[in-house]
C-alpha cells in the first residue's frame, strides 16, 4: 500500500523549495477539470498560497460546461484562485489567418488549443512572476499522449512519475471531488472525446505494462507503437553537433 501521506509531504516540500529557490511569486496551472490538473492544483496550493488555476475553454462545448464545472469544484474545495480565459475567438482568428495558406487537417486542428493554452499560461506567468506547473502523468508521457509545446510544456511537474491509476488513488486520499475521480479521462478536445477511445487501449492496461511489463498482445502493440512514435516529444530538439 502506497504511503500517500508521505507522498504528499515530499511533493509539497519539493514545490515549496522550488518556489523559494527560484524566487517567484507563485504558481500557475491550467485547470482542465480533469484528474491530473486537480492533483497538481491541490499539491501546489498546499505548498504555495499564491496558486492560480486558469480555465481556458476553446471551442468545445464541454469546456464551458462539464470541464469548467469540475474545475471550479476543485478550486472551491481547496480555495484556489481561478480565472477564466476564453480562447475560442483566438483559435478562430488563427484559423482565419492561415486560411488560404494551408489546409488545416484534424491533427493540426486539435493541437492548436493546447498550444494556445500554454501560451496563455506563460503570458500570465511572465507578467506576474509565476512558475508554470505541468499536469501530465507518467502514463500519458509514456504514450506521448500530449501536445508538444502545448500541455507537454511546463517549468516543473510534480506528478510526472505517477501512473494514471496512481493519480486516482492519490486523489481519493486527498478527498478530491468524486465528480473528478469518476469521470472518464479526456483532454476535452472535441465533443465526446475520451483518452482511452482515442488511443484504443485503457489506462489500466497501460499502467500494467509500464509497472509490470504485462499486456495482452493487441494492447502491447498499441502501447509500443504510441511510445516509439512519440519519442521526439520526450526530448529536447535535435541540435546539429549534438547527439
Q: Keyphrases for this structure?
A:
Rossmann fold, 11 helices, single chain, alpha/beta, globular, 4 strands, four-stranded parallel β-sheet, 243 residues
Outline the fold blueprint:
Blueprint: H1 4-22, E1 26-30, H2 35-47, E2 51-55, H3 61-77, E3 81-84, H4 88-98, H5 106-128, E4 130-132, H6 138-143, H7 164-173, H8 178-182, H9 195-199, H10 203-212, H11 217-229
Parallel strand pairs: 1-2, 1-4, 2-3
Helix pairs in contact: 1-2, 2-7
Give a description of the structure.
It is a single chain. This protein is of the alpha/beta class and 243 residues long. The protein is 54% helix and 7% strand. The chain has 11 helices and 4 strands, in the order αβαβαβααβαααααα. It has a 4-stranded parallel beta sheet, sandwiched between helices. Helix 3 links the parallel strand 2 and strand 3. Helix 1 crosses helix 2 and helix 2 crosses helix 7. It starts with a helix and ends in a 14-residue tail after the last helix.
So how many helices?
A: 11
Please state how the strands of the largest beta sheet are arranged side by side: 3-2-1-4
Order of helices and strands: HEHEHEHHEHHHHHH
The dominant shape is: globular
Beta-strand portion reads 5-15%
Kindly state the number of beta strands: 4
Could you state the CATH homologous superfamily?
HUPs
Largest sheet report = 4 strands, parallel
Amino acid at each position: 500500500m502506497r504511503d500517500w501521506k508521505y507522498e504528499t509531504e515530499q511533493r509539497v516540500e519539493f514545490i515549496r523549495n522550488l518556489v523559494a529557490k527560484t524566487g517567484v511569486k507563485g504558481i500557475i496551472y491550467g485547470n482542465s477539470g480533469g484528474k491530473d490538473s486537480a492533483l497538481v492544483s491541490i499539491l501546489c496550493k498546499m505548498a504555495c498560497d499564491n496558486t492560480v488555476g486558469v480555465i481556458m475553454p476553446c471551442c468545445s462545448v464541454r469546456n464551458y460546461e462539464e470541464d469548467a464545472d469540475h474545475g471550479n469544484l476543485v478550486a472551491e474545495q481547496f480555495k484556489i484562485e481561478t480565472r477564466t480565459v476564453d480562447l475560442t475567438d483566438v483559435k478562430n482568428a488563427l484559423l482565419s489567418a492561415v486560411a488560404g495558406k494551408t489546409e488545416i487537417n484534424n491533427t493540426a486542428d486539435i493541437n492548436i488549443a493546447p498550444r494556445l493554452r500554454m501560451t496563455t499560461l506563460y503570458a500570465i506567468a511572465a507578467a506576474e512572476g509565476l512558475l508554470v506547473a505541468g499536469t501530465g502523468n507518467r502514463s500519458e508521457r509514456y504514450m506521448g499522449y500530449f501536445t508538444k509545446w502545448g500541455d507537454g510544456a511546463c517549468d516543473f511537474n510534480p506528478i510526472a512519475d505517477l501512473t494514471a491509476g496512481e493519480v486516482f488513488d492519490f486523489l481519493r486520499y486527498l478527498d478530491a471531488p468524486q465528480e473528478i475521480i469518476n469521470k472518464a479521462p479526456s483532454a476535452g478536445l472535441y465533443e465526446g472525446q475520451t483518452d482511452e477511445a482515442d488511443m484504443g487501449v485503457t489506462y489500466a492496461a497501460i499502467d500494467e505494462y509500464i509497472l509490470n511489463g504485462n499486456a495482452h498482445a493487441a494492447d502491447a502493440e498499441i502501447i509500443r507503437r504510441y511510445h516509439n512514435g512519440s519519442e521526439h516529444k520526450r526530448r529536447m530538439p535535435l541540435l546539429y553537433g549534438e547527439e
